[in-house]
Amino acid sequence: MLQIQSLTRRFGERTAVNEVSLSIPAGQMVGVIGRSGAGKSTLLRMLNRLTEPSSGRILHDGMDVTALKGQALRDWRTRCAMIFQQFNLVQRLDVLTNVLVGRLNHRPLISSLLGRFTAAERAMALEALDRFDLADQALQRADTLSGGQQQRVAIARALMQQPRVILADEPIASLDPRNAKVVMDALRDVNKRDGLTVLVNLHHLDTAREYCDRIVAMQAGRVMFDGTPAELTAEKVREIYGVDEAEFHEQAEEAVRPKHTVAA
Amino acid sequence: MSAAFHTDISPVVATGEAAFQAARQQRRLATLVAIAVLVPCLLLAGWVSEAWPSTIWAGLPRIGEYFWRILPSLSLDHLFGGTKTEGSLAFWFYRAPEWLWLLFETANMAALATLMGSAVSLVLAFPAARNLSPSPLIYQLTRRGLEALRTVPEIVYALIFVWAFGVGALAGILAIALHTAGANGKLFAEAIENTDLGAWDGVRSAGGSWALACRYAILPQVLPNLISYFLLRFEVNIRSASVVGFVGAGGIGAELYQVISFNYYEEISAIILLIILAVASIDLLSERLRHAIIGRLGGPA
Amino acid sequence: MSASIETWRARLPAAFGATRAQVMTRRLGWTAFLLWLAAVLWWFDFTPVRLWNGLSGLGVIIVMMIPPSPGELWVEILKGIAESVAMAFLGTFLSATVAIPLGFLGAGNVVTATLLRFSIRRVFDGFRGVDQLIWALAFVRAVGLGPLAGVLAIFTADIAVLAKLYAEAIENVERRQSEGVIAAGGSKLAALRFGVLPQVLPVMLAQALYFFESNTRSAAILGVVGAGGIGLQIAERIRVRHWDEVAFIIILMIITVGVIDWISGKVRRKLIGERGRQPV
Ligand SMILES: Nc1ncnc2c1ncn2[C@@H]1O[C@H](COP(=O)(O)OP(=O)(O)OP(=O)(O)O)[C@@H](O)[C@H]1O
Ligand SMILES: [Mg+2]
After folding, report:
1. Same domain as C122, residue C178
2. B62 falls in which pLDDT band (50, 70, 90)?
3. Which atom of ligand 1 is nearest to the CA of A218?
4. What's the pTM?
5. Does the keyword Glycoprotein belong to this entry (chain C) (predicted)?
6. What are phi and psi of A87, to 5 degrees?
7. What distance in Å separates the CA atoms of residue A115 and residue A98, rounded to the nearest whole number?
8. Range with the lowest mean pLDDT among A3-7, B4-8, C69-73?
9. Within an 8 Å CB–CB cutoff, is residue B295 touching chain C?
10. Ligand 1 near A150 CB (within 6 A)
């Protein structure tokens, strides 16, 4: 159970996330939608503590995540893996090492610094890669992979962390439709088969409806809607955003497009 | 047809001409101001450094004579004679074995100093990179510290270290290493500041500590750059190592200081020629190595 | 799990570490490196005792440096600083002036004779290998102690490098513009004067200013071998162990270098704008 209580983040004058409260049971797949600048990324980054909240609390199974420091914080980050729009792999390292990065917090510092991973860890990483049909690319450099492949490597890395929660920030915004489907299927698989809680930022309402158990719509840092896909009707969208669905898509696409897309 | 062409283009030419004249006027003014500043500066500098055209002129014959004397007196007939034959190469380089050994020592001093200094830079560069530094205070401290290390010339360090550590290569190596730590530290930190932080977020979000994120997210990206800087600094340090001996800090410098001070004319040119050859071959080697490494690790990301 | 390790090891052996040959070469490389390191550390006498004694000596020196003090001969110090700056300025000016014709000589598109150019380049490179301090020492023997030797040393050491940089700058611009002048019926000399010079002059000026900055640093130490400037003062103070004055001079040196960098940077930007930043 992930509880978010009055979570707020201000950047100077601007309030990116404003008094957001959500309660997410374990194993749920939640889609967060909203226009560019709605605060979706900020919300997810706060959950992983990559961004510090200005106020409010995050509780996971009763533990106050916002109070964590040092090793405890790193342990929390390991338990809530993050996936990014730009994949954020180490481009110059091979795929296998990128996946093994997910184990860093589970092992002794010195051997990590020296890059000495055990055979068991390597097999585990290959297993994770194999799940997404990438075992054969394990020794290639990450920058030789297509965008869709890189995102799947990122998911494999996330799984290596053996997390309870997966936070995915626009995981398919840089991908073509075919790769987008592969990646979303992978996320669903992780949610259904491994029972992980998945929070995924999306700008496409149809994708959110298709894959998620629950949709949270944000606007200007606030949660405007929280319910099942069925409840998010066309009228509801117009009510929240003042535009119809087609226009909403157009604006949302606009927002993610300028961030350079990686060729598939 | 040519007439039509002419009438077509002439207004353009007219405006172009006017602009050209205006720009020219401005340039003239700038030149005048520059001369008005430059000439007094030159006069002042000449007065302070006692370098008048007349003194330089008077010095020229002596300079000519000096460098003429330095040149070896080789004769074609005996060019390949033994060390005892005047006019032979062997006579000119009669102490070549000792000098080569000293050059070898100098190169090793430079290599060790570059290694030690760069190791320090590598450790300090991460906190000294603005985008990674754990806190602004640490950033300022390390950055300013590196700056201080860099600003003091090697030879000043060498002078002081010869007092502290005694005469010998040890003082020279530490002096060069300290300066290198500052110089490379700044370059390393700047290379790190130019990296993409996506991978950093990736490693941090996976629970990697600051040190591990430096190791896995940043180091692979900057490594080719760092190796390049390392080798370039090695080239620079060979030159430095050849002169720290002037103040007793080891290497071929001490020998060179002696032969120059005691006016062993031909030996001066012999040693300098050896230094030039050594520096040139090391430059060549290091350039090859740089290209090979960049080729293998891929160009700077 | 171990079963899966074995299957994966069979399928992708390279993922489980380097091959035997790779391991051997790597080990060999490390061994050679460590042997070299041990050898030079021993050769250069990096013994704990010596390091310890040196560091404690250094500690004493640093304690004696505080507080820095100008001592009684502060006029001499100021004179030394002025002398250093003047040496750097004059030396740079002279070498920058002489380097212009040399640069044209070295540029590939002006002198077409490849062999001549090749040998000129080699000479340039040769000069670069000789440290300024060596030139300074030689000139002290030739023209005597004093700043003139320093000026000449800076001039000689820089001339080759500057000429080389100038040659490259000329090569970068030559083709495009001088063709225009020649096409308009200009002579080869006119092509240089009107086609090349206006374009390369700002670049040359910027480079000369960079050299002035770096020469200020080196002029500060040429005095160590008697070639004038503040270096002489610092060497003397160290000889008589007036560490507080040494510290004072070092601080003054750092400030001077900083001020010169600042002024030169300003002039560079003022004279040539952003073009001065163009890496050549
Ligand atoms: N590091 C930051 N510094 C200053 N302002 C920020 C920062 N990060 C985000 N913001 C601001 O906070 C607001 C919310 O940003 P956020 O990235 O969370 O939106 P988003 O919903 O993810 O939008 P997008 O679809 O464009 O990714 C925006 O107005 C943004 O400008
Ligand atoms: Mg976002």
Report:
1. yes
2. confident
3. 21
4. 0.84
5. no
6. 70, -40
7. 11
8. B4-8
9. no
10. no
C132 and C25 in one domain? no
Tokens 């090569």 belong to which residue?
Answer: C171
Q: Is A39 in the pocket of ligand 1 (CB under 6 A)?
A: yes
CA atoms within 13 A on the CB side of C176: 9
Q: At what angle do helices B265-297 and B53-70 cross, to 10 degrees?
A: 90
Name the maximum alpha-carbon separation found in chain A. Answer: 57
Domains of chain A: 2-256 (3.40.50.300)
Residues C60 and C183 in one domain: no
Residue C275 confidence (pLDDT) above 50: no
Return the closest-CA partner of residue A184 out of A145, A148, A226. A148
Q: Same domain for C141 and C245?
A: yes
Cα separation, B43 vs B275, whole angstroms: 36
Nearest CA to CA, how far is C44 from chain A (Å)?
A: 30
Q: Provide the token pair at B278.
A: 């050594």
- Would you state the pLDDT for residue A262? 42
Q: B141 in the Ramachandran plot: left (φ > 0), alpha (ψ -120 to 50) or beta?
A: alpha
Fold of the domain built from segment(s) B95-297: MetI-like fold (1.10.3720)
**Quick one: angle between helices B219-241 and B96-125, nearest 10?**
150
Number of domains in chain C: 2
Confidence (pLDDT) at C59: 92
Domain ranges of chain B: 2-51, 95-297
Residue recorded with tokens 């002398």 = C83
Residue C3: pLDDT band (50, 70, 90) is low
Residues 6+ apart with CB under 8 A from A87: A147, A150, A151, A153, A154, A174, A262, B198, B202
pLDDT of amino acid B112: 96
Are C101 and C219 members of one domain? yes
Same domain, C7 and C138: no
The SS3 assignment for C69 reads: coil
Among C65, C84, C102, the domain boundary falls at C65
Q: Nearest CA to CA, how far is B225 from chain A (Å)? A: 13
In this predicted complex, what is the ipTM?
0.87
Domain range for residue C51?
2-65
Give contacts of A126 with chain C, Cβ < 8 Å.
8, 11-12, 15
Structure tokens at A46: 């706060």
